[in-house]
Write a structure and sequence with these properties.
The chain is α+β, with helices and mostly antiparallel strands. It has helices at about 1-50, 70-75, 110-115, 140-155, 190-200, 435-440, and strands at about 85-90, 95, 115-120, 135-140, 220, 235-240, 245-250, 255-260, 270-275, 280-285, 290-295, 300-305, 310-315, 330, 335-340, 345-350, 355-360, 365-370, 375-380, 385-390, 395-400, 410-415, 420-425, 430-435, 445-450, 460, 465-470, 480-485, 490, 505-510, 515-520, 525-530. The protein starts with a helix and ends in a 6-residue tail after the last strand.
Length: about 525
């Protein structure tokens, strides 16, 4: 019985082993097939990349479908490393030159694709529309249209564009040339002759469109009073800017000479000097900025040295009996001071020695003086209604003519460019003359300004001779600004909302940006002229 049981168990074991072997056989066959297919795929891939290295294709014989590799891929391959590449057409096998690929942006904004811009809602964006009913566009499209619009409005100039053609032979690689007159030009630029022309001239290449002041309305702003920190207790008789455009001098009948630093906002006071025995009728800087000449109705005058901060009293002048030296002018070269004396005399005093160096004599009483732009000539007018031209080198009057319609001349002023001069009278008439024509015999003024009805006390041209200020101290708001190129008066001056009181003196800053006006109330009104960018 035991033997039978053992035989039965052995049979069962053998059956199980056979079943397991049957199961293993199909698995081994599948593994072998997969290995063969993988090997074929590897060979096919290697042949595709490196050519048919296992079974080279012979010309004239067909390749079996299983082992076939693209003939073109075995004969040619594409070199992607070059900028301009060569490729082969898949159909006809022709060699074509591919265009260079565009460079990718270093950084891209992901929000551009998500954002939407309504170009129909904003007026200035409607020009970006391609269709009339177009409204919403994507952010990236909006950026591309803005770039296209910028290129359209700002086309590149020819001289600024690089030339893609090779350079001419005359510009060698070492950029050396024996011709000293020829400028070395950067690679790729065309207009060499134009560059040479630019380098051979000293003219201004850029002309500001704002250099011409337009007539009609004057653009200005009212600023803080120049002497707001310390107003004068009496009428202001003199205001003048220093040559540095930051320092302003004010003087008046309160016997104080004040200096302010002008910035248009705070206008800080720098110094105040009290002249005990002389109510100041006029004070003026020397054009070189080193001294201030102070005068009143006295036989003497004062000189204030800005460097030493010292006041010197000068006079009376030797041989003269004038009781007042209140009217004077300083020459542009800072060498001479001309005082109005008695009985038509004009006294010439040296600025260095402060001594009398000469006298000039008019037929009538002298009332006003004005130096020419170079300081070599002097203009004077007075009680006889005539305008005198004096040569200061010889002391002779080389021209004398009647001021048209004038009985008593009260003020004179010459333009900084030397072409014009203006003459005012006690009737309120201001005549503007072309100086060359006047000296040539034409005595008719180019313009007669009749906007004032009382005696003209003050005349002043600005730095570029485009504005002429005329004022009378006998009437409120009696200050007019004349546009010289058109010979018309600015219609919006004086300001309607703010009174000027009784104007007595005025000055423009060296750059033309500020205008200061002193009045009888002891205030110095300050204005900013928008046309001029510099103070």
């Amino acid at each position: 019985m035991q033997a039978n049981d053992e035989n039965g168990n052995g049979k069962e074991m053998s059956l199980e082993v056979m079943r397991v072997n049957k199961r293993k056989k199909p698995r081994n066959e599948v593994d072998e097939k997969d290995a063969v297919e993988q090997e074929k795929e590897m060979k096919k891939l290697e042949s595709f990349l490196f050519g048919n290295i296992y079974a080279p294709v012979e010309f004239g014989k067909e390749v079996e479908e299983g082992d076939a590799v693209d003939n073109d891929s075995s004969l040619f391959f594409v070199d992607r490393s070059a900028n301009s590449v060569l490729s082969v057409g898949e159909d006809d096998g022709e060699v074509l030159e591919e265009e260079p690929k565009q460079r990718k942006a270093v950084w891209e904004d992901d929000e551009e694709a998500k954002a939407n811009v309504n170009i129909a809602k904003v007026n200035r964006l409607r020009k970006l529309r391609k269709e009339e009913d177009e409204s919403l566009i994507s952010g990236s499209e909006y950026v591309s249209r803005l770039r296209a619009q910028h290129v359209k409005l700002n086309p590149g100039t020819e001289w600024a564009q690089l030339n893609s053609e090779p350079r001419n032979n005359k510009y060698s690689d070492d950029e050396s040339s024996d011709d000293e007159d020829r400028a070395v030009v950067a690679h790729g630029y065309k207009a060499v002759g134009a560059v040479d022309d630019l380098l051979r001239t000293n003219e201004d290449f850029v002309v500001k469109s704002s250099s011409k002041l337009l007539p009609g309305l004057l653009e200005y702003s009212i600023l803080t009073d120049a002497n707001a920190e310390e107003p004068s207790s009496g009428p202001i008789n003199s205001v003048q800017f220093h040559r540095n455009a930051q320092l302003l001098l004010t003087a008046g009948l309160d016997r104080r000479l004040r200096f302010f630093q002008i910035d248009g906002k705070r206008n800080a006071k720098i110094e105040s000097i009290f002249i005990d025995d002389c109510p100041i009728r006029k004070a003026a800087f020397l054009p070189d900025g080193s001294q201030v000449i102070i005068a009143g109705r006295r036989k003497f005058f004062y000189s204030f040295d800005l460097v030493k901060a010292k006041v010197d009293r000068i006079g009376p002048l030797v041989g003269r009996e004038e009781k007042s030296l209140e009217v004077f002018e300083v020459s542009p070269d800072s060498s001479t001071i001309a005082f109005v004396g008695n009985e038509g005399y004009i006294l010439l005093v040296s600025t260095k020695t402060k001594e009398l160096i000469g006298t000039l004599k008019m037929n009538g009483n002298a009332r006003s003086l004005a130096f020419s732009e170079d300081g070599k000539q002097l203009l004077s007018s007075g009680g006889d209604g005539q305008i005198y031209h004096w040569d200061l080198r010889t002391g002779a009057c080389f021209h004398k003519a009647v001021d048209e319609g004038c009985i008593n001349g009260t003020s004179l002023c010459t333009s900084p460019n030397g072409k014009l001069f203006a003459a005012g009278s006690d009737s309120g008439i201001v005549n503007i003359y072309n100086r060359e024509e006047f000296l040539g015999g034409k005595r008719k003024p180019i313009k007669t300004v009749e906007n004032l009805t009382t005696k003209v006390d003050f005349l002043k041209f600005n730095i570029d001779s485009q504005i002429l200020a005329i004022c009378s101290s006998m009437k409120k708001n009696s200050l007019k600004l004349v546009h010289v190129p058109s010979l018309t008066v600015f219609s919006n001056w004086p300001p309607q909302k703010k009174t000027l009181h009784y104007p007595r003196c005025l000055d423009f800053s060296p750059g033309g940006g500020f205008m200061a006006m002193g009045n009888a109330a002891g205030k110095v009104l300050l204005y900013k002229l928008h046309h001029y960018h510099d103070a």
